[in-house]
Design a protein that fits this description.
Keywords: Hydrolase, Phosphoprotein
Structural class: alpha+beta
Oligomer: single chain
InterPro entries: Bact_Sigma-Reg, CheY-like_superfamily, PPM-type-like_dom_sf, PPM-type_phosphatase-like_dom, Sig_transdc_resp-reg_receiver
CATH superfamily of the largest domain: PPM-type phosphatase domain
Order of helices and strands: EHEHEHEHEHEEEEHEEHEEEEEEHHEH
Number of domains: 2
Number of strands: 18
GO molecular function: phosphatase activity
Strand order of the largest sheet: 6-7-18-17-14-15
Number of helices: 10
Organism: Primorskyibacter flagellatus
Protein name: Sigma-B regulation protein RsbU (Phosphoserine phosphatase)
Strand content: 15-25%
Distance between the termini: 122 Å
Length: about 450
């Protein structure tokens, strides 16, 4: 018996699978569009799709199909290739250009089997092909495969929506944290109200460069009278908010605005303020930090007390980098005797060292952000590099300018220029510097 042919001579008989009326993936594929200028072909395919649980709409031309796609957004499109007017290839291109909420699976029905023709169809946006006459079992298998792809696409879209919503929530939280951190930076900056201060004929300049919004470095200075000066460099372990909170706590212990609250000062029998020895101050800080069992952070410290009349400087070094003395004659050397960090262990006895400064000498305290900075050559700056950097940086202006120039040179030669991986800070004493003496004389 000869197969029944449509108006284009294509057999319309199909092998129909009667075993099941439910198609796997029908929850994903709800609406199908059948496009063919042959009414009989449309009827047969539509009958199968509806039997498999799909809702079906029909179009007799590409133009009619485009209009339906615009208004209905079908999940599945089965389109004949050869149609008058807009053929299936052009319809597929137009279909892919439509704005859609989700992906639509497109199957071209064709009598073409050449590889070049299949390539043209894929380029136009087709997902699959079926060769006429269509076999019902093969059609069902291709649609099931398409349903799996659509299911994965929709699951991915859902996950992307969840990710987008989560990112939106995280961005809101980040903005709030960023706002708080900016305010925290202002508070931390207030811990260092002065960056430059003259003490008689001497001057102290401070530099503080956190690697983030807030940092764990702290530098400061104070003086109870014209004869004594105390200045320090502190580096709290770790980075970020916890370290910044520790610096705020320590800044309260060494407050320059409220001498009676400053543990580095005490009153003599006449009620006059004087500076405690550096080793005593280090021990008192260590006792206070160890008294709080909930604090795991510790700090390194370099604290110096200078007699502004004689130039005698007494220093305590608690795990901090060795200070650098730069003499007026151009020579420079590291000094100090090491020591255990503050807040690490109980009952520490700190050693104290002593040097004498002459007019024009400078004493540089700094955090390990300087020597441990990784340079372009892949190596850390270390002590030798810091020594070269310190003596090669011109000291033609103020101490503040010198520190800034020194930091700028460091930043330019870092492995990642300008991107700090640790806080960088420094305190510079210019003892009996001519510039300060000249200003003092004029005043």
């Amino acid at each position: 018996m000869k197969p029944k042919l449509d108006m284009k001579g294509v057999p319309v008989t199909m092998a129909v699978d009667e075993s099941s009326n439910t198609m796997a993936g029908s929850a994903t594929l709800r609406l199908a569009l059948v496009v063919d200028d042959s009414r009989l072909q449309r009827k047969i395919i539509t009958s199968l799709l509806r039997k498999w649980g799909l809702e079906v709409i029909e179009a007799a031309s590409g133009d009619e199909a485009i209009a339906l796609c615009d208004s209905h957004q079908p999940d599945l499109v089965l389109s004949d290739w050869m149609m008058p007017g807009m053929d299936g290839l052009e319809f597929c291109r137009r279909f892919r250009q439509l704005a859609r909420d989700s992906y639509g699976y497109f199957i071209l029905l064709t009598s073409k089997g050449e590889k070049d023709e299949i390539a043209r169809g894929l380029d136009a946006g087709a997902d699959d092909f079926l060769t006429k006459p269509v076999n019902a079992a093969e059609l069902r298998a291709r649609i099931t495969a398409g349903a799996r792809i659509l299911q994965m696409e929709r699951e991915l879209n859902q996950k992307n929506r969840v990710i987008s919503e989560t990112l939106g929530t995280l961005q809101t939280l980040y903005d709030a944290i960023d706002k708080d951190l900016k305010q925290a930076r202002k508070i931390q900056d207030s811990l260092m109200p002065e960056t430059v201060r003259d003490f008689g004929g001497s001057r102290v300049s401070l530099l503080l460069k956190p690697c983030g919004h807030v940092g764990g470095d702290l530098v400061g200075m104070f003086s109870p009278d014209d004869m004594q000066l105390g200045f320090y460099s502190i580096d709290v372990s770790g980075h970020g908010i916890t370290s910044a909170m520790m610096t705020a706590r320590v800044a309260g212990y060494l407050n320059s605005s409220f001498p009676d609250q400053n543990i580095a000062m005490e009153r003599d029998t006449d009620g006059r303020l004087k500076l405690r020895p550096p080793d005593v101050v280090a021990r008192m800080l260590n006792d206070r930090l160890n008294a709080d069992a909930g604090v795991e952070e510790y700090l390194t410290l370099l604290y110096a007390v200078v007699d502004l009349r004689t130039g005698v400087a007494k220093l305590v070094q608690a795990g901090h980098p060795h200070p650098l003395v730069m003499r007026a004659d151009g020579s420079a050397e590291f000094i100090g005797c090491g020591g255990v960090p503050v807040g690490l262990v109980n009952d520490v006895i700190y050693d104290q060292s002593e040097i004498r400064l002459a007019a024009g000498d400078r004493l540089l305290l700094y955090s390990d952000g300087f020597p441990e900075c990784v340079m372009k050559n892949g190596w850390m700056l270390e002590d030798d590099g810091l020594h070269r950097l310190a003596i090669s940086t011109p000291h033609t202006g103020s101490g503040a300018d010198y520190l800034q120039d020194m930091f700028s040179r460091l930043a330019e030669d870092m492995a990642a220029p300008g991107q700090l991986t640790d806080d960088v800070s420094a305190a510079l004493l210019e003892f009996g510097c001519p510039e300060v003496n000249q200003i003092s004389a004029q005043s």
